[in-house]
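Let us work through a complete example step by step.
Step 1: write down the sequence.
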Amino acid sequence: MLIQRVLTAALALPMLLWVIVRGERWQMLAVFLACVAISVHELSSMVVPSLEAKILGEEHRSKKIVGTFWYLAGIVISVILFFIATQGDYDTGRSGIALGFVVLMLVGVFTANSIDRSMIRTIGLLVTMGYAVVPWLAVWDLYILKEKSVYLFLLFTIVMGCDTGAYFGGRAFGKRKLAPNLSPKKTWEGAFFGILTAILSSLALNHYYGQTLGTDFLVGVTALFGGIAGILGDLLESGFKRFAGVKDSGVIFPGHGGFLDRVDAIIIAAPVVWVFVYNFLLPK
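Step 2: predict the structure and record it as tokens.
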């Protein structure tokens, strides 16, 4: 399993870095649109059938949602709205997302043969929109914000540093469970080392860029809260999987599970890092 994880990362990371550094903006947008589509697919596939089973009874669990109208509509609407939001100004983006929530509610309500199933689909689509679409706009903003996408690399450094530190720190020193109901393997000690690694790696990145990201203090504070958000994102996605009764969100990456299993920390950390970048790190 570890060999699969290393090989998958060794193949995927260089391709992603090439697109960010050398690729055209339209190529990166295509990557983001794919991220949105896959995120919506995986989350809706977990949440909606599980809601049906828990509310209506196990015998009413959807046997197949892939290919159904409401499922395809959710993906298409999410992708279109993300595309629109990245083409205009912030007011256009906010208006588009608001419209998206309304349209998804209409899709959920009018594509089922019972009021219970209508409400279940509506809840599932709204949760999917809020979790699997909106945070990617924060990632996109970090990508286009500054030359060479340095703030996007700051986000990646925080998340990957925290994940690496938490993994090795937890294995070496982990004793006290962080959230046993959500993820029994995560510990407070692992979280501490993860956040510490996120801060140190972010400071190293700042010095690599000649301290152009901001002062070390503000970069460290951004890494602190970004690291905490990343850990919470990991736990949140674990909650979705436990709710759905699945081990992985999907099987897209050999050795890594689903796509959301790899980006769960980024999804929650990105809006937090975005807030600190826009309010504190950007030159006034």
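Step 3: interpret the result. Residues 1-144 form one domain.
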